[in-house]
Specification:
Strand order of the largest sheet: 5-4-3-8-7-6
Number of domains: 2
Distance between the termini: 27 Å
Number of helices: 9
Shape: elongated
Number of strands: 12
CATH superfamily of the largest domain: GAF domain
CATH topology of the largest domain: Beta-Lactamase
């Protein structure tokens, strides 16, 4: 989509660049940047109004708004559109399309939101708002400090899946159970084809959202006894206790279809799988090496053209 409403994309991008230059030239502090971006966002997106809300305790508090009467208003962090956007760390749009909210991020954590309301907003409007949000975030980073939750050593901060460390620990447990009780289990490695190109084309925010979508698919369709992991980048793993090779392959083919149907980044990203069943007294290094080889074979098999 090249244009939306009456403002072509090229003009919006130019306006954003000019906005950044004006902020830098004036040496604005965080509060001034919030007001300035809100004032520019509304006409840029042909909205009736724009607001910046910050997380304060269990509330979202309006700290900048085109309508000054809204300043200081509090909304529930759990139930408001802005609060849900912060909690989910992703852009949300009202069901009727009349409002769009994007989170303001401090590292991996949402600390506020930028929103517009009073219009009929499109995907292009959403992408424009996602370009404006980091301008506020960067200014807030310089002038404010936010408490960070205790570090989680077993989960991936971006997707919420278990991480590589947890994968290695869980895989060793399953290998030991395989040796002691003869219980079969299978491992699937997943790699996203076209991810790097899509990340360059659509931007890092879209790439992060894509990874979260894949994590949701894996969490939704794995059994309670299974475990899904993000190993790093666009690499994932699934451990399937009590599942032999044929069952594991059937499951991963369903996952491949779910990811295909999700049309990630306009359908430019697909999934390849390397699926193996653990052998008797096999080490984790050997198991993952076999899964890597199966993944390479799968990529060749499903290579376009």
């Amino acid at each position: 989509m090249g244009e939306t409403g009456h403002v072509p994309r090229s003009e919006r991008l130019l306006a954003i660049i000019e906005l950044q230059n004006a902020i830098a030239a004036a040496g604005m502090n965080g509060d001034e940047v919030m007001r300035f971006v809100a004032e520019r966002a509304a006409p840029m997106l042909e909205a009736h109004g724009a607001t910046v809300e910050l997380v304060e305790g269990d509330d979202m508090v309006t700290r900048a708004a085109t309508n000054k009467q809204q300043l200081g208003r509090r909304f529930s962090l759990k139930t408001s559109l802005a609060g849900r956007s912060v909690h989910a760390r992703k852009t949300l749009r009202a069901d009727d399309g009349s409002a769009v909210v994007v989170p303001l991020m401090h590292g991996e954590y949402g600390v506020g939101s930028l929103g517009v309301a009073g219009g009929s907003f499109t995907d292009e409007d959403q992408r424009t708002l996602e370009l404006l949000a980091p301008i506020i975030s960067i200014a807030l980073h310089r002038t404010r400090s936010y408490p960070r939750p205790p570090k989680d050593t077993t989960h991936d901060a971006l997707t919420g899946l278990l991480n590589r460390r947890a994968f290695e620990e869980r895989a060793e447990v399953e290998l030991a159970r395989r040796t002691r009780y003869g219980q079969s289990f299978s491992l699937a490695l997943l790699d996203l084809d076209g991810f790097n190109v899509a990340n360059d084309r659509f931007g890092e925010a879209a790439g992060d959202e894509l990874l979260r979508n894949v994590a949701t698919i894996l969490n939704t369709h794995t059994r309670v006894m299974d475990a899904a992991f993000r190993l790093g980048g666009d690499e994932f793993a699934i451990l399937m206790p009590g599942t032999a090779l044929d069952g594991a392959k059937t499951f991963t083919e369903r996952c491949r279809q779910y990811i295909h149907d999700a049309k990630l980044c306009d359908g430019t990203v697909t999934a390849s799988f390397g699926v193996v069943e653990a052998g008797e007294k096999e080490t984790l290094a050997v198991l993952t090496e076999r899964a890597d080889a199966a993944l390479r074979d799968d990529k060749k098999l499903h290579k376009p053209g």
